[in-house]
Design brief:
By secondary structure, this protein is of the alpha+beta class. It has helices spanning 2-9, 67-78, 106-109, 135-151, 158-173, 183-186, 197-208, 215-226, 308-326, 353-359, 421-428, 432-437; strands at residues 32-33, 44-50, 56-62, 86-91, 97-99, 116-122, 235-240, 246-251, 255-260, 263-269, 273-279, 282-290, 296-304. The strands form three sheets. It has a six-stranded mixed beta sheet. The chain has a four-stranded antiparallel beta sheet with strand order 7-8-9-10. A three-stranded antiparallel beta sheet has the order 11-12-13, covered by helices on one side. Strand 7 and strand 8 form a beta hairpin. Helix 4 (135-151) packs across helix 8 (215-226), helix 5 (158-173) crosses helix 7 (197-208) and helix 5 packs antiparallel against helix 8 (215-226).
Length: 468
């Protein structure tokens, strides 16, 4: 009886059955950053950080570590100095994105894990990319904006999208070479959500006009065009007004945008916002507006969110944006020991844009590696050996979806089908008995002169998006 109770209620009996998935705690790239004091096992928390270039890193920190420890590990791994522009984003159980707070414990903020999953992203979009001091910081901004344009977060018209795609290719591939950079190659890249054949042909012309630009120059030109887009750096939050209609509040470097569907109906500049507070599920906004006769009036707005957590998250993001772009330095968060306190103790934990650009010590030069972007299967409407001519498939149009492209010729083409046995016998005049008896005279083996059906595995098939 005692053995049964010991086996039932012991720690060994409460262990989960089945093998433990060790691969889930290791990054796919194989890069692992151990805990700085050498702790292992139950004493550490494992986090998987997905970077902007598509690679991931596995980081171990102490179990009771604050969010700042994880930020410092990523900054050391990327050799990034202007870290305050960036943040680590995670999802809660309702698939709502949140930013990791540096001043709080990781285990208290993230409920899904361990291992925890974070996305390294740009948190504060600089109002002027030329103020970014280091080339590495501009490269990270360039990767973030490429994702925003490709996913449709920053919508672009046809001409602007073509220019941005040309600068992106110049940064990654170098100067245009007509013998190499043909429509086949261009169709492997993704630049905008609905990418048509006409768009790719226009990208080739824009890419040809970027000759002579270094990767850093092409990336800076990309940023200078993207910064003028209306949705540049807009952090959208869905709210409900007093009229029970759905609106969207967009946090930007200049203020708060108000959208009703896709239409922009207002902009509240940070300098005109006098009050920003929340209570339970409601967000209160007080804005000062100057009338035509020179007098100023205060307008109060009330927005409702789904729950209190979503409302507080929006309020915190708005406070951080206001402090980062408007203040010269943040107000320090003093630890108060009062038992009874009023209001929130939240204070932004990053330097302001003024401190980064005016007071920061920057390096003269830094060397880093640019990672190639993800490739996709080639567009099947492009045919021809060298891309000199194009031929469309039957019943195809410019907006057709992408599908897998399999070449018919060349080293990357799949093996040809074997010759039919009856047709081979008919052409050679050989009967089945002669085939079995001739040649090696071994049972079950055909003639050496028969058709060869061996499959030759091509080493270049990966270039066409075919998994081998």
């Amino acid at each position: 009886m005692l053995r049964y109770l010991r086996r039932t209620f012991s720690r060994r009996g409460r262990r989960p059955k089945g093998p433990i998935d060790v691969k889930s705690k290791v990054a796919e790239s194989g890069i692992h950053i151990p805990e700085r004091k050498g702790k292992k096992g139950k004493l550490v928390l494992t986090s998987r950080i997905i970077l902007l270039d598509g690679t991931d890193v596995s980081v171990d920190v102490e179990r009771k570590a604050l969010g700042e420890e994880l930020y410092m590990q990523i900054a050391y791994h990327l050799d990034l100095v202007e870290l305050d522009y960036f943040g680590l984003q995670f999802m809660d159980s309702n698939q709502v994105p949140h930013w990791l707070d540096k001043t709080k414990k990781i285990s208290k903020q993230v409920k899904i894990g361990p291992p925890y999953t974070f996305h390294f992203r740009v948190k504060f979009y600089s109002s002027e990319p030329n103020l970014l001091q280091e080339e590495l910081t501009r490269y990270q901004f360039f990767l973030q904006l490429k994702q925003d344009v490709m996913t449709g977060k920053i919508p672009c018209p046809f001409e602007v999208g073509v220019k941005l795609a040309g600068y992106a290719l110049q940064s990654e591939l170098g100067d245009y070479d007509p013998e190499v950079h043909n429509p086949f190659l261009i169709s492997e890249f993704r630049f905008v959500p609905e990418q048509s054949e006409a768009f790719e042909l226009g990208v080739i012309e824009a890419y040809n006009e970027c000759k002579g630009q270094s990767p850093a120059d092409a990336e800076l030109n990309y940023l200078n065009i993207a910064k003028w887009r209306e949705m540049y750096g807009v952090d959208m939050h869905v709210v409900e007004g007093l009229d029970h209609n759905e609106y969207s509040l967009g946090l930007t470097p200049t203020g708060v945008l108000v959208f009703e569907g896709p239409t922009k109906i207002g902009l509240f500049f940070w300098s005109l916002i006098k009050r920003l507070d929340f209570r339970k599920k409601k967000l209160y906004l007080s804005v000062t507006q100057q009338e035509e006769d020179g007098t100023t009036n205060d307008h109060n707005f009330v927005f409702t969110l789904d729950n209190m957590k979503a409302c507080k998250h929006l309020w915190k993001c708005a406070v951080e944006h206001h402090a980062f772009f408007r203040l010269k330095q943040n107000v320090p968060s003093n630890k108060r020991n009062q038992i009874i306190r009023l209001g929130s103790r939240f204070r932004p934990s990053v330097r302001t844009e003024f401190q980064i650009t005016r007071q920061g010590a920057h390096r003269k030069s830094v060397s880093f590696e640019r990672k190639p972007s993800r490739r996709y299967s080639r567009r099947p409407t492009f045919t021809g050996s060298h891309g000199d001519r194009t031929q469309s498939r039957p019943h195809a149009n410019d907006d057709q979806a992408f599908s897998r492209f399999v070449p018919r010729q060349g080293p990357a083409a799949p093996p040809r089908a074997s010759v039919d046995t009856r047709e081979y016998k008919k052409n050679t005049g050989a009967s089945s008995r002669q085939t079995m008896s001739g040649g090696d005279h071994h049972r079950g083996r055909g003639s050496n002169n028969g058709p060869k059906t061996a499959y030759v595995r091509s080493s270049a098939r990966h270039a066409y998006g075919i998994e081998v």
